[in-house]
Write a sequence for this structure.
């Protein structure tokens, strides 16, 4: 039995191939991330078959580098953690197949990890977790508020009914001629502009914690195209600021409402869109003012996107909780908490 | 040499372990279910039955396509990762050859064409011919329309055997083709790959030298890629993936 608490983690749910070695659930020894973004930019979004093909090109190189950089061997490992969903099935299958092969070859336990649990545990690299806890998870594929009564128990309080927040950024980005993924550029423009268009705040008054961004997206596109037809050019910074303000308002309002109903000790902000400066600043300000006893933990910027270190952090807890998969583990593209 | 051979290119899944050319154990499934569920449990079971450890393996042989993209990827990812992590040799063999080389041996010098259905009346096809104890490539593996394949047989005016995934449309086209008298269609049981044959083909082949670069032979670029290349001639980069 390995004396060190080392988890080898794989992540390949979308367009990043990543392998990491994590010690004690909160120390990154290596976190190799091969991103395919330059490839999918050509198509304006992730093409699943192209993504799967890139993953298989990268997987063993990432594995070898992760072990090299961490300066460990297979004998030092305690378990292999793997993202088995949610995500693109073809992409997931590359990581799942590789992780199973490694686990079998070295007689290591295989620990299945939900990708969204991984995003939450990216915040574990910042602070120790104290429960009960809540997480606002925002990414290109997901927007949800998750309540965690205890360690590794997940209850979805609310989620998006249509587009994920990141998806909405990409769609309006396309209208503005911003290349995929649009989040970072829109965020930058938004900081230089003002909310002059007052786009709708969807479901803000509803008595639930669900989100909807398709109405906002349509309002944005209509405003843009109507102006175009009139031969007017709208200020792109103001457009971006107005869009972002609406997204952030809804995300923050719903989260604050959930905090009122569910008293927690920590609030976690995680997922790809958690890198958005507008969202980080606003959530920080509002939580500090309205819930001074709640500690906000923002996932580190470089761990907001998909990476295997976060899977290793979640996997370490799942391992302690006795979660195991056998060799028949399959990819679960629609996996939910 | 202890060999593990894996083929999940199409509906059948076939796994074998051999000691040199001696078969130790093999399993073939013909379910249309996800190979991901059965590949590793089958490997685990066969190796355990043989009383081997994973570390006892000397070589992995994998059917590297063409075939179902997802199917081929499961076998290749599994094989490539096993070879990498156990630091042993990896050999890739054409999935068409796994069937073709075996069947051609039984055809007494007559060329054997293997086809996999590639949808929209297209096939992945290759031809093999056993001559003086050697296995020759009669037709290099390629992605082509079934029509073109029939025309090629007609042009070469050689009697051939055909084996593989036929649908009603293919049968109809063969019946109406001028090449029809040249073609003998073999029964469906010839079209089930055997990983034992794969192991034998891979036993004497040269192992892969650049393991990380090893990818399936899809024989077809993705539609998105094809459309993009049409619009951006000459812009193709060496690599679209970078470490961050």
């Amino acid at each position: 039995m390995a004396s060190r608490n080392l988890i080898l983690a794989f992540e390949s749910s979308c367009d990043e191939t990543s392998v990491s070695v994590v010690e004690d659930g909160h120390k990154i020894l290596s976190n190799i991330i091969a991103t395919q973004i330059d490839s999918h930019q050509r198509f304006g979004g992730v093409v699943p078959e192209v993504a799967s093909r890139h993953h298989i090109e990268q997987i063993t190189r990432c594995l070898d580098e992760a072990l090299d950089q961490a300066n460990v061997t297979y004998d030092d490992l305690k378990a292999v953690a793997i993202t088995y969903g949610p995500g693109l099935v073809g992409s997931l299958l590359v990581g799942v197949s590789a992780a199973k092969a490694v686990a079998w070859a070295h007689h290591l336990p295989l620990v299945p990890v939900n990708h969204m649990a991984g995003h939450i545990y990216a915040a574990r690299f910042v602070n120790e977790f104290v429960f009960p806890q809540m997480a606002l998870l925002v990414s290109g594929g997901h927007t949800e508020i998750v309540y965690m009564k205890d360690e590794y128990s997940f209850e979805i309080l609310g989620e998006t009914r249509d587009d994920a927040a990141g998806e909405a950024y990409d769609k309006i980005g396309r209208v503005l001629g911003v290349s995929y993924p649009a989040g970072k550029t829109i965020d930058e423009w938004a900081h230089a502009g003002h909310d002059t268009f007052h786009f709708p705040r969807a479901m803000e008054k509803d008595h639930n914690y669900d989100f909807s961004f398709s109405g906002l997206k349509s309002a944005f596109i209509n405003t843009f195209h109507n102006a175009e037809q009139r031969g007017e050019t709208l200020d792109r910074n103001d457009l971006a600021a107005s869009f972002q303000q609406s997204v952030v308002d809804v995300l923050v309002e719903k989260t604050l409402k959930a905090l009122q109903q569910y008293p927690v000790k920590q609030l976690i902000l995680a997922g790809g869109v958690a890198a958005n400066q507008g969202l980080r600043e606003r959530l920080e300000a509002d939580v500090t003012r309205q819930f001074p006893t709640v500690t906000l933990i923002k996932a580190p910027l470089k761990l907001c996107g998909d990476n295997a270190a976060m899977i290793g952090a979640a996997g370490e807890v799942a391992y302690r909780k006795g979660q195991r998969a056998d060799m028949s583990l399959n990819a679960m593209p629609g996996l939910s908490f | 040499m202890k060999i593990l051979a894996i083929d999940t290119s199409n509906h059948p899944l076939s796994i074998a372990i051999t000691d040199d050319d001696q078969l130790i154990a093999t399993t073939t499934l013909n379910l249309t279910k996800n190979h991901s569920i059965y590949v590793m449990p089958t490997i685990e079971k066969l190796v355990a039955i043989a009383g081997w450890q994973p570390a006892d393996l000397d070589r992995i042989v994998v059917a590297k396509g063409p075939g179902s993209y997802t199917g081929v990827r499961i076998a290749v990812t599994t094989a490539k990762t096993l070879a990498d992590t156990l630091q042993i040799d990896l050999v890739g063999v054409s999935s068409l050859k796994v069937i073709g080389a075996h069947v051609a041996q039984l055809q007494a010098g007559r060329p054997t064409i293997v086809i996999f259905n590639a949808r929209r009346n297209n096939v992945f096809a290759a031809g093999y011919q056993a001559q003086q104890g050697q296995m020759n490539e009669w037709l290099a593996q390629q992605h082509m329309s079934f029509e073109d394949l029939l025309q090629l047989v007609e042009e070469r005016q050689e009697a051939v055997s055909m084996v593989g995934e036929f649908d009603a449309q293919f049968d109809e086209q063969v019946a109406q083709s001028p090449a029809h008298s040249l073609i003998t269609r073999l029964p469906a049981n010839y079209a089930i790959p055997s990983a034992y044959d794969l192991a034998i083909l891979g036993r004497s082949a040269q192992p892969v030298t650049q393991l990380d670069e090893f990818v399936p032979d899809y024989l077809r670029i993705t539609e998105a890629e094809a459309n993009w290349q049409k619009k951006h001639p000459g812009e193709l980069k060496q690599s679209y993936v970078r470490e961050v």
In short: Residues 12 and 95 of chain A are 5 Å apart (CA to CA). Strands of chain A lie at 6-11, 16-23, 27-35, 79-85, 110-114, 133-138, 143-148, 155-159, 266-270, 295-298. The two ends of chain A are 31 Å apart (CA to CA).
